Amino acid sequence: MGLLHRRREPLNGESPDLSDARDEISRVRGELERAQSALDALPIGVVLVDPRGAVLSRNHSTRVGRGHSDVLVQEAIDRQVTQALAGRESSASIELFGPPKRVIQVKATPRNDGGALVIIEDISERARLDAVRTDFVANISHELKTPVGALAVLAEAVSEEDDLEVVHRLANKMVDEAHRAATSIDDLLELSRIELGGRAVREPVVVHDVLRSAVIRSLAAAEQRDIRIDLDEPEPALTVLGDRRQLVSAVSNLIDNAVKYSEQGAEVFVSAVIDGRHVGLRVEDRGVGIPTKDLDRVFERFYRVDRARSRDTGGTGLGLAIVRHVATNHEGDVQVTSIEGEGSTFTLRIPVAS
Ligand code: ADP
């Protein structure tokens, strides 16, 4: 805008040109400071390098930690800058073994003026989710491959068999394997519905109704093993805030487990307990129990203490993952106490409706 050329009266004996130049310098300095503070506010690290590799500008987020971590990141920056100054876009991920463990991505791009722009990003969460997804896909493939593989072998055997009695036995096995695949798919669908559904529905739900419906769902499985489900009916006015369908699904998963991991002819107890601002939906059994070392892990998808027993009883390894998701969706939690050989008590705590 020609500010530098505008004539003014001398101030304190200073020439107008000099005074205008000072104004201009302080304006540019202000702008630079504003740009730097905007750059410093970014959650990603940014480094600008000139064609000779000298750093023109870098923001706060380029410092990812202290001491050794910063040294490792600086080495990665130097390597990527060398590539970018040679005209090649390049990127590398480095793992910092914390704790907490972190994954940092350093990416350098050549600039038109021959310099380079480096972006440093903490991608730990993305890397963790990728690992979870890869594990999940591997687990699903395994879970479905087992019954589907068995079905193929059985079908082949049936097609070559003449003895009707054997054909009948093989066909029954095929039905079992088909049910196993169907149950896994049902549980996967239920889990994804509950995960995606999130915390949408928060209506007053009568606890009595949830427990009854869950017991009814599990009755057939209990009868098959001659197990009695003892429902201690809560008072009809007791209500929680939540999604009825999800709550029934969670409690019924807990009852199914109590039935599966109890001896034939045992008893399972279902009740509700008031615990401050929460209602605990409780399922108790006198079954095989869970070793202390496994207690934290049983809520993970596909985790089983005894793989063979879970498989024999038609388990999918997803039941408790569903229960934990339902608890999270309701801003509640799920607690377990168990003694190996004596039994387990699971309590799903849901906020009470005021
Ligand atoms: P599964 O379909 O294998 O039962 P879950 O996610 O429901 O999968 O449970 C995970 C594991 O936790 C089970 O394989 C079992 O080892 C253990 N478990 C769950 N509930 C009980 C229980 N009531 N008694 C003993 N072990 C249990």
Descriptive notes:
By secondary structure, the protein is an alpha+beta fold. It has 3 domains: 16-122, PAS domain (Beta-Lactamase, 2-Layer Sandwich), CATH 3.30.450.20; 124-198, Signal transduction histidine kinase, dimerisation/phosphotransfer (DHp) domain (Helix Hairpins, Orthogonal Bundle); 200-354, Heat Shock Protein 90 (2-Layer Sandwich). Helix content is 47%, strand content 22%. The protein contains 8 helices and 12 strands. The chain has helices at 16-41, 68-85, 124-159, 164-197, 207-224, 244-260, 307-312, 319-329; strands at residues 45-49, 55-58, 90-97, 101-110, 116-122, 203-206, 228-231, 239-242, 267-275, 278-285, 333-339, 343-351. It has a 5-stranded antiparallel sheet, with helices on both faces. The protein has a 5-stranded mixed sheet with strand order 7-9-10-12-11, covered by helices on one side. Strands 6-8 form a two-stranded antiparallel sheet. Strand 9 (267-275) and strand 10 form a beta hairpin. Helix 4 (164-197) runs parallel beside helix 8 and helix 6 runs antiparallel to helix 8. The chain is elongated. The protein starts with 15 loop residues before the first helix and ends with a strand. Mean pLDDT is 88; it is low at 1-5. Bound molecules: adenosine-5'-diphosphate (ADP). Residues 257-258, 260-261, 285, 287-290, 298, 303-306, 310, 315-321, 344 line the site of adenosine-5'-diphosphate.
